[in-house]
Amino acid sequence: MNPKILIVDDSQLMNQMIRDILEAAGYETQSALSGPQALKLAETWVPDLVLLDIMMPEMDGFEVCRQLRKREKTRSVPVMMVTAKASIVDKQQGFEAGADDYLTKPFEPTELKLRLSAMLKRTQQQGEIKSEPGHHILVVHSLRGGSGCTSLAVNIALGLQQLWDAPVALVDMVRPMGVCGSMLNLQPYHRLNTIVDQSLEEMDHDMVAGYLSTHENGVKLLGGFSDPISAEKLTENLVSYLLTQLQDMFQYIVVDISHDYSPPTIAALDMADQIILPVTPDINAARLAQAELKMLESLGYEKRPFLIQNWTFSKEGISRAQLEKYLGQPFDFIVPHAAGEWSKAINTGTPVIANDVELPIVRLLEDLAWRLSDPLLRSQKPERPTPMWTRMQKRKQAAAESDRKSSR
Questions:
Q1: Which string of DSSP letters, residue by residue, matches 259-313?
Q2: Which CATH architecture has domain 4-130?
Q3: pLDDT (average), residues 272-288
Q4: pLDDT digits (tens, 9 = 90+) for 186-208
Q5: In terms of pTM, does the model score above 0.85?
C-alpha cells in the first residue's frame, strides 16, 4: 500500500502543487485548506504523514500539530512543517508543538521527496523500537575527531535523566583514552582498565553494576580507559556483554565510542537502537560523514542515523543546505555555535545542560533530549513530571500564546 500523505495549506495552489509532486512519486494524498478541516480528515483517513503549513486562518499550524499529538489516532503520525517562516524561533516553536521536521519554502521537489522518504523510514523504525519498549541504546559516533561526540554524549545522557527521571547509563568506550569522567567532574574508581582483565565467565550482573560511578544528577558512568595499553584489550565480545547487562538495568544507555570501525566499535553499533552522527560544517567532516553513511548502509544497518549539524566554530562553515545536498540526507537537529559554553564545560567538568535553564543552548539541549526520547514517553504525560518536562511544557504554552497574539 502506498504511503498516505495529508497536505494542509490554506493555499489551493500550494496544495495542488504538492499533490502533483507526491502523486507522481507514488504517494496517496488528501488535502485540507484549514486546521479544523485537517483535524477532521486526519481522524477519518489517518495519514502516514502530515505536511503542515503554519500561517493559516482559524487555527495555525502549531495548534493543529498540538491537537494531532493529543488525539489517540494521530499522536504518533509524523508531522513536517512546510512554511516560509524560517527563523530559529519559528522552528523551535514547531518542534516544541510536536513537529518532527521542518521544510522551508521555497523548496525543490527532490528535497521534499527525500525528506518524506527519510521520515517515513524513521517512523517504521520507531515502530520496531516500540515492540521492545523500555531499553534504548544510543551510540554517538563519527569518523571525524573533534566533531563533539563526547560532549554530546554527556549532555544527552544528563538530559534524558533530567527529562524523565529514568535510569540512564553513560558508557565511555573511546580508545585509547576516555574523558567522559572529566566532563562530569568524576574520577571513577573502576574503569574499563579493570574490566578488560576480567574473564567473561567470571563476570555477572552485580559485578558490572559495581563498576559504575554515580554523577550527582543520577546518571551512572562506566568510566573509560585511562591507560592506552589496556584499551587495546577491548574486544567486541566484551562490548556486547556489557551492553547486554546494562540493558537489564537502564532505560537509556548512551555510548561514546572511538572514531573508527574496529570490531569493538562495530559491536556497539550493532546493538544501537539509534546511531547519532554529529557533523561539523567543514569539508573534511562532510567527506567522512558521507563515508560513514555509506559504510553503515554496506554493513546492513537499516535504521537511519540521527544526523546533527554541530557548529563547533562561529563562521565560515558550510551551510546546512549544502551539507544536506552533499550527504543526500536532511539533518535531524542543529546545534548552533555557543561562544565559550562548550570549552567552559570541558574545563570545569560541568556539562552545558547543567547550566542556567534560560540559556538558549541549554534549552536547545533539552529539546535534543526530547527528540531522542522513547516516542511512547513523548506521547503521554508522566506520572511525576520532572522540572525539565514542566519547563518544556511551559515553553510550548508560551509559544502557542505568542503565536495566537501575532496571528490576530
A1: SS--HHHHHHHHH-SEEEEEE-SSHHHHHHHHHHHHHHHHTT--SPPEEEEE--S
A2: 3-Layer(aba) Sandwich (3.40)
A3: 95
A4: 988 889 998 998 887 788 888 89
A5: no
